[in-house]
Amino acid sequence: MKETASAKKSDSFKDSRTSATSSSSVQRSLSFSDSAEDAQPPIAVPQPQRDHDMNSWNCSQHQKLWMRTEMQDLGLWPGSRPVRNLGNAISLWRHPPQPELIDTVAELPSPNFFQLHPFFIWKPENEIMSRLKNKYNLPCLHGCPHPQVVSAGVGRPRVIVGTSGQYYILSSRLCCKSCRKNWFADSPRWLEKLPRRFTNLLPAFLTYKKAICKSVMDELRRTGKSPTDMANQVNELMHLKYERAHLAYLQAIESVWDAEAGVHGQKTIGQFIRKSNTPYPFSSYEDPNGWCGISVSGFYLTDCLLEEYKRQEPALSRLLQGTFGQVFRSDHTRKVARKVTLASGIMSSYAIMNEHWLIVSWVMVQSESERSLEPMYQGMAKRYNDAGVEKAGFHWVDR
């Protein structure tokens, strides 16, 4: 029995070592893969094998292994043991370990730990979001009258561009037991069916083909920059983060070499244990097996901005149409309308503001007579009547 157990342990160790060798040196020093010593017996949950396949994920190999390890530690990976968190005090954000603090024993620091990006877990069907759901029954994407939405696999990561760098949103794959159809949790059609408290948690705006961090859109609106200028700023920030990570990797190697040379006193013996003293290359910014960096263009940001405007257009229209007042101030302005030409050659801008200097109505007219303004006043009266608001009692005009 001892020989059999030893043989099984040896085979398991070989399998773990084989998978670690195929990825990179980061797994040789601190393996992300499961080992026979620390692995826990999984719970039998029948899942299709394709749901466990990470080959379709658009990220580096060490990014895949680290995300899988984080999901296993939280009990969110299919087949992993459930983990109890007291008070459900957990964050959906997962940040990489500090690479400078990782002890690689005798090996030189690996660039893979310096090339990891944060990711956000999006699993609305899981128990970790039970407090947010509060017995709310998740809807089916296809409109089933009695939906039963459950998890159907790991899902996929989606890269997002933010003002502080890139990150991923790891969305689960969902399935409705009633209609037996699958979809991803980041589907825009399904997100529109959820209450606002769910989508408020998402750090990005998602469409079918594009995704952008809310911080980028907020910065674009705040600064008033053009999409091209904003794209250049974001690309510069992401390349700056890459250069800083590269510099931190070189400084970590320099620190090891200084310790082995006895610069700070006693020498270390790491150089006599490892087989090679040549550090691994950090690779380029776009390397899919390294940093896996992306770039955005002005056209990309323009499309994202237009998609967000279409989504918020009803709310913006209600906000603009909901501007009222009790004291009006109106004025004709010809300077604004100089570039507008008509056959008559006459064009004026007529604006009405309330007591808070908010524009209630703004029209372009061909004549400054009161008759040309009657359609506008009729529209304003209808707006007040429809809203049940008392009409203005004072009106100041410029003539």
What can you tell me about this protein's structure?
Pfam families: DUF6729. Residues 1-56 are annotated as: Disordered. Residues 85-260 form the DUF6729 domain. Residues 18-34 have a biased composition (Low complexity). This is DUF6729 domain-containing protein. This protein has 399 residues and is α+β, with helices and mostly antiparallel strands. The protein folds into 2 domains: 56-321, no CATH class; 322-396, no CATH class. It has 11 helices and 13 strands. A 4-stranded mixed sheet has the order 1-2-5-4. A hairpin with a 4-residue loop joins strand 8 and strand 9 (211-213). It is elongated and about 95 Å long.
**What's the average pLDDT?**
81
For the secondary structure, the number of strands is: 13
Strand order, main sheet: write it out.
1-2-5-4
N-end to C-end Cα span: 105 Å
Order of helices and strands: HHHEEHEEEEEHHEEHHHHEEEHE
Q: Quick recap of the structure?
A:
The chain contains 11 helices and 13 strands.
Secondary-structure map:
Layout: H1 2-23, H2 25-29, H3 61-73, E1 93-94, E2 119-122, H4 130-133, E3 149-151, E4 156-162, E5 165-171, E6 173-176, E7 182-184, H5 188-191, H6 196-199, E8 204-206, E9 211-213, H7 214-223, H8 227-261, H9 270-273, H10 298-321, E10 327-333, E11 348-353, E12 359-365, H11 374-387, E13 394-396
Parallel strand pairs: 2-5, 10-13
Antiparallel strand pairs: 1-2, 3-6, 4-5, 6-7, 8-9, 10-11, 11-12
Helix pairs in contact: 8-10
What descriptive keywords fit this protein?
399 residues, alpha+beta, 2 domains, four-stranded mixed beta sheet, DUF6729, DUF6729 domain-containing protein
